[in-house]
Design goal:
Number of strands: 11
Number of domains: 1
Shape: globular
Number of helices: 9
Order of helices and strands: EHEHEEHEHHEEEHEHEHEH
Distance between the termini: 14 Å
Low-confidence stretches: none
CATH topology: TIM Barrel
Helix content: 25-40%
Strand order of the largest sheet: 1-2-3-5-8-9-10-11
CATH architecture: Alpha-Beta Barrel
CATH class: Alpha Beta
Amino acid sequence: MNLGVVMPVELGMAGDPATVLEFARTAEALGFDEISAVEHAVVIANTGSEYPYSPTGKSHLPDDCPLPDPLELLSFVAGATSRLGLATGVLVAPNHNPVVLAKRLATLDRLSGGRTRICLGVGWMREEIEACGGDFTRRGRTTDEAIAVMRALWAGGADGVDFAGEFHSFHGACSFPKPMRESGVPLYIGGHSAAAARRAGRLGDGFQPLGLGGDDLAAAVAVMRTAASDAGRDPSGVALVLGATLPRMDASKAEWAAALGADRILLSASRRATTLDAVLDEMAACAERMHLA
């Protein structure tokens, strides 16, 4: 079971280079497999959009919480580490031009030695997507096409590649360098909806269900696997990433995740960990319980 840790942006220190490096280097030294960074290009004050992972419909983060660009943050971390995986959770796909994003992801993956894993989502904040020039009502279709665009560019050779889609088209496009893996940067799909589960089954290298547990989680995994089968894919080939908190992670949690077919768990600090030292203590205790180092 691979274990990752989520950047504790709740502390309000994710824009501080010393804090970022201490967190990342500690995670690597303790034996964690990856760190994961979140994205919001902008946060709209007093947004009318409902945050789907809170019973109040409001995000637990203040509007002025520092949220660095995740790819820039991971590039910074890549140069200061040697083994640590570099993940997003999630990158809001409709905020990005996929031609440019393909180059950015390939560059990060190449220069980090193939350590990149990207979790994409369609986003929940209408105003953010619109501020980035996207269409909230078409965000599912644009995400599907973005995945196709990036994979086409990564697979294209010296003669270039052609693409004709609903939102993007090009002829003879060459995009180098390529990702380290011939299959490209792994693209996981994150979300809580049936649409996200189906997208993961149809198109994803993995599925990262968010905010789900119990019967809802089992149902989402089943939807993903059915969609994979319907698309002619092997459902077992779609990786599954689950979540937990650092203090609750133990051997029984790993067994539970493995029974669902997961090979990776992303761990967050508890609400009690309100300082960096407290987060690092939870990480160290978890690493000792799981015999990581």
